[in-house]
XRE family transcriptional regulator (Megasphaera elsdenii), 59 residues
Amino acid sequence: MKNNIKKVRQQKGKSLYWLAKNTGLAYRNLWDVEHGADVKLSTLYRIAEALQCKVTDLI
């Protein structure tokens, strides 16, 4: 699934390491999600909360 997580994260000037730390998700899992791996809605909510954006901005 194509998503905009990496784009939004970079626009906000945050590193993938920062996102992992602030969501409690594993760095490798986030990397996989940014590169098209399937992602749960609950994970999208955690990412959106950390990046202070809407879930719809990420997909």
About this structure: The helical segments are 5-11, 16-23, 27-34, 41-51, 55-58. The chain has one domain: 4-57.
